[in-house]
Amino acid sequence: GETRRDRLMPENLRWLIEEGYPDRKIIVWAHNAHVMNAYYEAPTFKTISLEPIPDAMKTMGVHLAEWLGDDVYTIGITAYEGNDEMIGQPDTAKSIPPAPEGSVEERLHRLGYAQAFLDLRAARGEADHPLRGLQTMRVPKYDNVQITAPSQRYDAIFYIARMEPATVIP
Q: Is the dihedral of CA 164, 165, 169, 170 positive or negative?
């Protein structure tokens, strides 16, 4: 299942980094749930933790952080509202309701940003940084999750005010 996939993905990346493209920078585009530096509780996948928890999926992001340390820079993507759908699969379509009041996404929405990039690494060194401590965020999926120390799970967040499904270019 998911745990096996998240164990094999970093092995494939390691080969690409060491053998396929040594001494080059590599950008990997993957789902928030796989790149985050945290464990993902199964089977509901609603709880994330910095520490291993029973029946948790050890994500690719945890494997990569253990191997590469600060040489990996992980960006999570989140949205205030919109729609989501897997390409070409209309039966997977779902609406993303507006983020709840006080959430990171709602605060960015109130500021009027269509997009924003939040460098969470900056929050690690500042004890009074507004993104330290308990935050409500929509990562790793569009569920509203209370997250402690979001800067330990992602190095940055890319925010989009309105998410829309990807479309196939004819």
A: negative
Residues written for the chain: 170
Angle formed by the axes of helices 2-15 and 60-68, to 10°? 40
Nearest residue to 145 (alpha-carbon basis) of 44, 6, 7, 16: 44
- 52-96 pLDDT, tens per residue? 887 788 899 999 999 999 899 999 999 999 999 888 888 999 999
pLDDT in tens, 125-156: 777 887 777 888 988 778 888 887 788 889 99
Sorted by sequence, the CB contacts under 8 Å of residue 107 that are 6+ apart come out as none
Cα separation values, 142 from 2, 68, 76, Å: 18, 28, 12
Transcribe 124-166 into DSSP letters: HT-TT-TTSS-EEE--SSSS-EEES-HHHH-SEEEEEEEE---
Q: What are the residue ranges of helices labelled H in the chain?
A: 2-15, 32-35, 60-68, 104-110, 121-124, 150-153
Q: Please state whether the predicted TM-score (pTM) of the whole model is above 0.85.
A: yes
